[in-house]
């Protein structure tokens, strides 16, 4: 499977944490990924177990979580743990939004694959999701 | 008023048009602003005549386009409402005391003013021991879940001289009850209290958190809070329509003003349906308006908002009292326009937003801190925001003249054009059966989302300049201090809640919560409007927690999930 293979249609789950507010950016990212030809499952404010469960049920390649109002590290850690508990630790997690400098080492320690702070271009976000999806088990299975 | 192009064009305008044509040919200098309104390169008296704006009322005169007072900042300048919130009550009290020392808690007539934002659990009505919220406790706002928290936060304050503003989502009614109960324990009666609760109890556009009330339940509850306050806490604002948050969700100014006013209409229609007088309910209303994207447009939309609030309340609802016709406006600069890149330039953006707010004649002002795209504000950033407001107030002459842009051919024309566009937008909502239907169908949200994406597209293509992001980009890494709340707060908040629960009279608390459920059910059935908020205050006096009260309210009034 390669990036230009017409069978390569990344599937992405996007959400915000249940304990957050302001979901403008996640909607914008969803549209940008769809415009790029990806399949996007957009759920809104959910707890970590629901996010992990939906990701597995929907068989997505990448999970993106957007933050605004605190709890960045704690929620991400819970999500990664929920994926691990379900035997899907290989699913890449991307976080974005108001990510503070002191959050980044902890997020990286959780195993987050990319962090997008304000002002990133949509093109860079799209490219990251594509690249991560390309390496996912579901896409490898297509060959 | 619609534009009447048959009015006589002045000789000077005819000559000017000829010169432009000679010099620039067919070049089109008209631009389209964020409200979708065409903006001419020059305005003159012809534009006013075409809109029938030759004779305008003065400030303090209906429909209050020019302001709600006959003289304004000359008599009483705006309140400084720096938004603050982190940690627990005793932590935040330190930031309040800093503001006091720096002259920044300036309320009306020598009093103090504080604008408090809650962490997401408190804002949504969850106690700190609710599963999954631990990492958010005290992280982006103050953690409050019990009456005692306000007694700690406000110890020694004279609440009769304190404007206490609370920014809160689904948890608003119960959070307000905790404040009223704490005030009672401190010796203050409801009619001595001043301030407002935003009461964002329905998630219109996703900006107010995930879990919230059902659309229909939320309007019923909003009217209950309004009816209670009209009788018991008459100087407290009971609901804020956040044009600001709708803008921040991505709406154009016309959509944001239109949706804010459609919310006013929905609440007053609910009050009418319940057989209540609309004047006392309307008197509890206020607006939160965003500034900082386009100076003249910001002034124009605010003037349009004031005149539409007055006209709608008078014409649709027969309101006649001062409080019900005069829109009180709390300005805030735009957080979504603050960049993480070159963050110090946000100081300049915020200063222009604050200048626009002062020229628009707002009643209170939040100047954001420049580092908010990075995290919670540092003390240095908070002080700079405050100085911004103080320079505008004290040095730049903004207090001398009320509505200083009145009579500007441009601003008067734009005020009128924005008003027309807002009325057309409200007509679309009316055609669909009103705002609640537009929320339930997803139309309101889709409208805003489309505008949000368009804004992002314009930034990405460079059509819309954003300095530091798509213009004048620097790549030097910048080191910035970022404020970090104490991570131990979560544990302390939970321990403190457990302590209060162990000490309270459990039987009295249980009885108060049972009465709350009964009152809620009565109100939901359309009876005894105001009794639910009264029962909330009684429960708060019995030391019921925020989360215990909220669970009952969610059960009775329904949720959006």
Brief sketch in words of this structure:
Chain A is an alpha/beta fold and 143 residues long. Helix content of chain A is 42%, strand content 17%.
Q: Mind sketching the topology for me?
A:
The complex is a heterodimer of chains A (143) and B (561).
Chain A: E1 11-16, H1 24-35, E2 39-42, H2 48-57, E3 62-67, H3 72-85, E4 93-97, H4 104-110, E5 114-117, H5 122-134, H6 137-140
Parallel strand pairs in A: 1-2, 1-3, 3-4, 4-5
Helix pairs in contact in A: 2-3, 3-4
Chain B: H1 11-24, E1 31-32, E2 38-39, H2 45-50, E3 79-80, E4 83-84, H3 89-101, E5 112-117, H4 120-124, H5 147-153, E6 162-167, H6 172-185, E7 194-197, H7 215-232, E8 236-237, E9 239-242, H8 243-248, H9 253-273, H10 278-283, E10 285-291, H11 295-317, H12 322-325, E11 329-333, H13 346-360, E12 364-366, H14 379-394, H15 409-431, H16 435-440, H17 443-461, H18 489-503, H19 506-524, H20 531-541, H21 546-557
Parallel strand pairs in B: 3-12, 4-5, 5-6, 6-7, 7-8, 9-10, 10-11, 11-12
Antiparallel strand pairs in B: 1-2
Helix pairs in contact in B: 3-5, 5-6, 6-20, 7-9, 7-20, 9-11, 9-15, 11-13, 11-15, 13-14, 19-20, 19-21
What does this structure look like?
The complex is a heterodimer of chains A (143) and B (561). Chain A has 143 residues and is of the alpha/beta class. Chain A has one domain (11-121): 3-Layer(aba) Sandwich (Rossmann fold), CATH 3.40.50.280. Chain A is 42% helix and 17% strand. Chain A is built from 6 helices and 5 strands, in the order βαβαβαβαβαα. In chain A, strands 2-1-3-4-5 form a 5-stranded parallel sheet, sandwiched between helices. In chain A, helix 2 packs across helix 3 (72-85) and helix 3 (72-85) runs parallel beside helix 4 (104-110). The mean pLDDT of chain A is 89. In chain B, strand 4 (83-84), helix 3 and strand 5 form a beta-alpha-beta unit. With 561 residues, chain B is α/β, with parallel strands linked by helices. Chain B starts with 10 loop residues before the first helix and ends with a helix. The mean pLDDT of chain B is 92. Chain B has 2 domains: 79-461, TIM Barrel (Alpha-Beta Barrel), CATH 3.20.20.240; 501-552, no CATH class. In chain B, the strands form 3 sheets. Chain B has a 5-stranded parallel sheet with strand order 3-12-11-10-9. Chain B has a 5-stranded parallel sheet with strand order 4-5-6-7-8, covered by helices on one side. Chain B has helices at 11-24, 45-50, 89-101, 120-124, 147-153, 172-185, 215-232, 243-248, 253-273, 278-283, 295-317, 322-325, 346-360, 379-394, 409-431, 435-440, 443-461, 489-503, 506-524, 531-541, 546-557; strands at residues 31-32, 38-39, 79-80, 83-84, 112-117, 162-167, 194-197, 236-237, 239-242, 285-291, 329-333, 364-366. In chain B, 49% of the residues lie in helices and 8% in strands. Chain B is globular. The chains are: A alpha/beta (143), B alpha/beta (561). Chain B: GO terms for molecular function: cobalamin binding; methylmalonyl-CoA mutase activity. Chain B: Residues 34-558 form the Methylmalonyl-CoA mutase alpha/beta chain catalytic domain. Chain B: It holds the Pfam family MM_CoA_mutase. Chain B: Keywords: Isomerase. Chain B: InterPro entries: Cbl-dep_enz_cat, MeMalonylCoA_mutase_a/b_cat, MMCoA_mutase_a_cat. Chain A: One of its GO terms (molecular function) is cobalamin binding.
């Amino acid at each position: 499977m390669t990036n230009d293979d017409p069978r390569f249609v990344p599937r992405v789950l996007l959400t915000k944490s249940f304990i957050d507010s302001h979901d403008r950016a996640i909607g914008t990212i969803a549209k940008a990924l769809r415009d790029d030809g990806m399949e996007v499952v957009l759920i809104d404010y959910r707890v970590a177990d629901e996010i992990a469960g939906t990701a597995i049920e929907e068989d997505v390649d990448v999970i993106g979580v957007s933050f605004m109002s605190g709890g960045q590290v704690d929620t991400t850690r819970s999500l990664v743990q929920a994926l691990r508990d379900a035997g899907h630790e290989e699913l890449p997690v991307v976080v974005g939004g108001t990510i503070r400098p002191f959050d980044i080492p902890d997020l990286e320690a959780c195993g987050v694959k990319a962090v997008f702070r304000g002002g990133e271009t949509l093109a860079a976000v799209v490219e990251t999701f594509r690249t991560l999806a390309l390496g996912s088990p579901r896409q490898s299975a297509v060959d | 008023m619609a534009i009447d192009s048959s009015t006589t064009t002045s000789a000077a305008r005819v000559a000017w048009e000829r010169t432009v044509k000679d010099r620039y040919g067919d070049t089109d200098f008209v631009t389209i602003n964020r409200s979708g309104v065409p903006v001419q390169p020059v305005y003159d008296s012809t534009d006013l005549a075409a809109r029938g704006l030759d004779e305008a009322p003065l400030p303090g005169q209906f429909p209050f386009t020019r302001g709600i007072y006959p003289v304004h900042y000359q008599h009483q300048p705006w309140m400084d409402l720096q938004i603050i919130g982190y940690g627990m009550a005793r932590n935040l009290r330190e930031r309040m005391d800093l503001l006091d020392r720096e002259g920044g808690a300036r309320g009306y007539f020598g009093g103090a003013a504080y604008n408090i934002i809650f962490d997401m659990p408190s804002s949504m009505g969850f106690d700190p021991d609710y599963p999954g919220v631990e990492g958010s406790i005290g992280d982006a706002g103050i953690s409050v879940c019990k009456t005692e928290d306000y007694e700690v936060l406000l110890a020694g304050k004279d609440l009769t001289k304190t404007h206490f503003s609370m920014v809160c989502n689904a948890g608003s009614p119960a959070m307000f009850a905790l404040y009223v109960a704490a005030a009672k324990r401190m010796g203050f009666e409801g009619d001595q209290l001043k301030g407002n609760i935003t009461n964002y109890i329905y998630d219109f556009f996703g900006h107010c958190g995930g879990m919230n009330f059902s659309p229909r339940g939320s309007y019923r509850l909003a009217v209950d809070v309004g009816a209670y306050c009209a009788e018991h806490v008459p100087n407290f604002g009971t609901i804020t329509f956040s044009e600001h948050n709708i803008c921040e969700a991505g709406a154009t100014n016309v959509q944001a003003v239109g949706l804010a006013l459609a919310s006013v209409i929905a609440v007053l229609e609910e009050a009418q349906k319940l057989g209540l007088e609309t004047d006392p309910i309307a008197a509890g209303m206020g607006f939160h308006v965003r500034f900082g994207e386009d100076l003249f447009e910001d002034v124009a939309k605010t003037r349009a908002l004031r005149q539409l609030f007055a006209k709608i309340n008078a014409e649709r609802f027969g309101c006649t009292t001062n409080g019900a016709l005069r829109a009180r406006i709390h300005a805030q600069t735009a957080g979504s326009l603050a960049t993480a890149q070159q963050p110090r330039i946000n100081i300049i953006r915020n200063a222009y937003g604050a200048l626009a707010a002062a020229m628009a004649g707002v009643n209170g002002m939040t100047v954001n801190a420049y580092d908010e795209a990075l995290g919670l504000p540092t003390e240095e950033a908070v002080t700079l925001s405050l100085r911004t407001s103080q320079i505008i107030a004290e040095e730049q002459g903004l207090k001398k003249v009320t509505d200083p842009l009145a009579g500007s051919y441009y601003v008067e024309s734009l005020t009128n054009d924005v008003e027309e566009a807002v009325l057309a937008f409200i007509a679309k909502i009316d055609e669909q059966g009103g705002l609640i239907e537009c929320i339930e169908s997803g139309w309101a949200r889709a409208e805003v989302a489309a505008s949000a994406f368009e804004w992002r597209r314009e930034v990405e293509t460079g059509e819309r300049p954003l300095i530091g992001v798509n213009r004048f980009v620097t790549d030097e890494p910048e080191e910035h201090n970022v404020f970090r709340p104490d991570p131990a707060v979560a544990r302390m908040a939970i321990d403190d809640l457990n302590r209060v629960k162990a000490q309270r009279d459990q039987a009295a608390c249980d009885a108060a919560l049972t009465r709350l459920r009964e009152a809620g059910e009565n109100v939901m059935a359309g009876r005894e409007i105001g009794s639910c908020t009264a029962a909330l205050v009684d429960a708060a006096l019995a030391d019921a927690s925020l989360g215990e009260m909220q669970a009952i309210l969610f059960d009775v009034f329904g949720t959006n999930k």
